[in-house]
Fold this sequence. Notes:
The chain folds into 2 domains: 6-218, Spore Coat Polysaccharide Biosynthesis Protein SpsA, Chain A (Alpha-Beta Complex), CATH 3.90.550.10; 290-381, NAD(P)-binding Rossmann-like Domain (Rossmann fold, 3-Layer(aba) Sandwich), CATH 3.40.50.720. Helix content is 35%, strand content 21%. It contains 12 helices and 17 strands. The strands form 3 sheets. Strands 1, 2, 3, 4, 5, 6, 7, 8, 9 and 10 form a 10-stranded mixed β-sheet that branches. Strands 15-16-14-13-17 form a 5-stranded mixed β-sheet. α8 packs antiparallel against α9 (255-274). The protein is globular, with a radius of gyration of 22 Å.
Amino acid sequence: MNTVKISVIVPIFRIEKYLPKCIDSLLDQSFLDFELILVDDGSPDNCPKICDDYAKIDNRIKVIHKKNGGLLSARKEGLNNAEGKYISYVDGDDWVDKYYLDTLFKLAEANDSDLVVTGHFREFDGKIETIKPKMVGIYNERELKSSIIPNAIYNGEFCEHGISTYVWNKLFKRELLCDVLFDVPNEIVMGEDAAITFGYLAISKSLVISRIPLYYYRQRHDSIVKSIENPKTEYYRLGLLMNFLKLKLNHVLDAHTLSKQIRYYLYSQILVRSGGLILSESGGIFFNPFLRVKQNSKVVVYSSGSFGQHILSTNFKADFFQIIKWIDVDFHDLKIGGNSVQPISSITNSEFDFLIIGTINPSIYESIKIELGLMGIDENKIVKINTDEKEIKTLLIDLGFDEDFLFKEN
């Protein structure tokens, strides 16, 4: 009799520095009825050997070596070889709590749930932050359709998800996941997690959300993409994701709600990837989302994460505003265009006109704004992002997105 209750799938590519800690945390689980599927996605470093060495010492481990095909293909290959009732995904540079699988399994079984969502820890440069979902509870099919899914991608505050996109803080039923994952086009290489999570949510009949943090997400500043490719390539990729979401959710959401959800999500992703300022082909400013900020304004940028890095990189090219300082609570040795990250205590009101908080999440924005206020920063200088729905709709059309959110070059 098969006793495998959970298949844990770990996609692996160029993470030899972190992989042993990840595998060790999984082999140390209090829950025993699981298999560990290590998918070597053609990693050119020492990862293949690390996987094979671990497989020799624990028979719960399956190792799959495949030609490099990207994260999505690795997740599909793992699912193809999985036998468990449930599926858990773990990224190979992260690690998990000893009771990670035990808690996920009990949450699923106790509530007969198709999907389990939990909290997680964010680790950055030795600092650990606890992230807990807001919509804690048990939801049936009617509640999923009436309150969860209509707010899943965009919860009414720009642009915060009602359900996090991550696949690694969740537990899926294998049979249901097969109905979604293999439909996701391999060409989607931006937002793969969102395609899986929201596509799966659309066919789920029960959901449980717990605040218990079990997963340690390692945020690595060396893993953030600091320069964007050809914008048209990125728009094409984002369009594939948004079109997939529209197709998967159109049977559970009305057309207006669905379009609004996806429109705001697409706009937010364009902002993060472009650094806010969207440049024309000639290098000028096509769209500036930072309200009140004008050319040559003296600006402080808060955030050394992906959005913050893109803001500095794009402005370095466009030379639109003057970046006086770059600050973050998580400041570390990082430099872009002559600016290096400084602590938030390093600024005074007199040296800048505006302060841009590099986040699209309103909860994070408000918490940062409060902290800056405690430091004496004038809140009137803190910039808001343009979220006017009509202007966003016009922008997306002007960029070349059609009504199905596919990008078609003008």
